[in-house]
Design brief:
The chain has helices spanning 10-21, 25-39, 41-59, 65-86, 107-119, 134-144, 164-173, 183-188, 198-208, and strands at 96-101, 124-130, 148-152, 175-179, 192-193. The protein is of the alpha/beta class. The two termini are 33 Å apart.
Length: 215
């Protein structure tokens, strides 16, 4: 769902958060699995988890050692849950997408969630981790010839205005989608900015994937 028309994910986020704040990893995994069953893993990853993480960031002082320890625990448990679901997401015979996430929560999880949303629609996901160097992206695109490359931009726009030329070169070789970029910046380098409704974006891109691969 789009951020402007949010369904009531607050209760779901609160249920998962309560297990994490109690440092109960087993209960958190059970709640995560239940939410994924009822709502879909893509909804959990792009809607519920970012909401939970933003609430944690807003309500706890960033300098608190207790808060820092809790955040690390939350990251570890949620990463385990996400990558358990993502196991094997590079396999199959669908179109390939190369994905590099921005560092930092919740943007990292949003990118992984977008990859899971593509996976649910038949894509093979090649995940390069957080802030993969441009050269790594270029080599992956050259070797794998994916239908899509997705690059997450951090708050500081690490790839953005400082490496616009390198991104523009990537966009010549492959359809390039940017997560966390303005529509104006993306258009200026021949890329597409992903909107806030990442599930709708995955659906739209999947429909568009019938277009021929650019060389």
């Amino acid at each position: 769902m789009g951020r402007g028309v949010r369904r009531p994910w607050t209760a779901a986020a609160a249920a998962l958060r309560s297990t994490l704040e109690a440092y109960d990893a087993a209960a958190a995994r059970d709640v995560f699995d239940g939410l994924s069953h009822w709502h879909g893993i893509d909804v959990v990853a792009v809607e519920i988890l970012p909401l939970l993480l933003r609430r944690l960031a807003e309500e706890r002082p960033e300098t608190s050692r207790e808060h820092a320890a809790r955040c690390e625990f939350v990251r570890g448990v949620l990463e385990e849950c996400l990558f358990r679901v993502a196991r094997g997401w590079a396999e199959g015979d669908g179109p390939r997408a190369v994905l590099s996430a921005a560092s930092g929560l919740p943007r990292e999880f949003e990118a992984i969630g977008f990859g899971l949303a593509l996976r649910r629609r038949g894509w093979r996901i090649i995940y390069l981790g957080t802030e993969a160097p441009i050269e790594t992206l270029r080599l992956a695109i050259e070797q794998l010839r994916p239908r899509l490359a997705v690059v997450g931009l951090s708050e500081g726009d690490r790839y953005g205005h400082h490496d616009a030329t390198a991104l523009r070169r990537l966009a010549i070789r492959v359809r390039l989608a940017l997560l966390g970029a303005s529509a104006e910046f993306a258009a200026s380098i021949g890329a597409t900015a992903l909107g806030p409704d990442l599930i709708a974006e995955a659906r739209r891109i999947s429909v568009d994937a019938v277009e021929p691969l650019r060389h």
